[in-house]
Amino acid sequence: MSVLERLLKAIYPDRCPCCRQLKGIDEPCDDCAVVLKKQEISGKVCRRCGLEKRFCCCSQYHYLFEGVAAPFYNRDLAKDGVYGIKYKEAPFAAKYFGKRTAESFIKRFPDVKPDFVCCVPCYSKEARKKNYDAVEQLAKAVADELDLPLKLKALKKVRATEKQHTLPQDKRQANVKGAYKPTARFDGKTVLLIDDIKTTGYTLNECSKQLRMAGAEKVYCATALMTSKRQENALVKTR
Ligand SMILES: [Zn+2]
Ligand SMILES: [Zn+2]
Predict the structure, then answer these.
(1) How far is the CA of 84 from the centre of ligand 1 (A)?
(2) How much distance in Å is there from the Cα of 200 to the middle of ligand 1?
(3) Is the pLDDT of residue 94 over 80?
(4) Are residues 64 and 9 in the same domain?
(5) Which ligand neighbours the alpha carbon of 32 most closely?
(6) What's residue 169's pLDDT?
(7) Which ligand neighbours the alpha carbon of 55 most closely?
(8) Domain span at residue 56?
């Protein structure tokens, strides 16, 4: 560890990315690790929608990406961790969740070698106001972990959208339609597109469409969290 790193560690000691308590490690503490394990998307997983096969939702959507990988369901401690990045309460957690997102991508698509990593952009006014973009933080951590080039500005958002989770299902596709544009050509490239949370996949789909229209041959996606109504319903039944 360099002097600078040691100094930074003294000022910003490592915290658990889930409960944010000072633990001197930047991995989840033992208590959080046990809970987090239960939120992993594991077992037989559909490579297309990224959910466990028993919760597969592929028949409901027409995906324009090759597949999507995510390490966790959007609930409990995994949600706390990622929302901590999202709302800038715990930006340091991007490193851990980025690492886990990268690992899930390698696990699902061991044969895929993306040319670069990019991310779902937020509308410039939002980012300027906060001077912080959680999805960019996550994409940086993923690119670092996979040792891939990062093109944060491959896509730009050209208009504001409503937050997808606040809208009914039938309004979500229209909400993101035409909201993103490519900033360059990506002819023949294989792209890894990052977002923080996948719900219906409409946002990833719309961004994938733009990347494909800009020449990308294949688009793969990875997110830190995935929401699944079927998984949530199954949980309720077992309670
Ligand atoms: Zn913890
Ligand atoms: Zn599926």
Answers:
(1) 13
(2) 29
(3) yes
(4) no
(5) 1
(6) 83
(7) 2
(8) 40-238
Q: Rounded to an integer, what distance in angstroms lies between the CA atom of residue 177 and that of residue 207?
A: 9
Which DSSP helix (H) or strand (E) runs through 93? Answer: helix 93-108
**Cβ contact 63:216 at 8 Å:** no
Distance, CA 138 to ligand 1 centroid (Å)? 19
CA–CA distance, 31 with 27 (Å, rounded to integer): 11
Tally of structural domains, the chain: 2
Do residue 183 and residue 101 come from a single domain?
yes
Q: Stretch 146-150: mean pLDDT, rounded?
A: 98
CA–centroid distance, residue 56 to ligand 2 (Å): 4
Clarify whether residues 31 and 114 are in a common domain.
no
Q: Are 90 and 81 in contact (CB under 8 A)?
A: yes
15 Cα: distance to centroid of ligand 1 (angstroms): 8
Compute, in angstroms, the gap from residue 223 CA to the centroid of ligand 2. 15
List pLDDT tens digits, range 107-130: 999 999 999 999 999 876 666 777
**Same domain? 82 vs 167:** yes
In this prediction, residue 59 carries a pLDDT of 93
Looking up residue 189, the CATH number of its domain turns out to be 3.40.50.2020
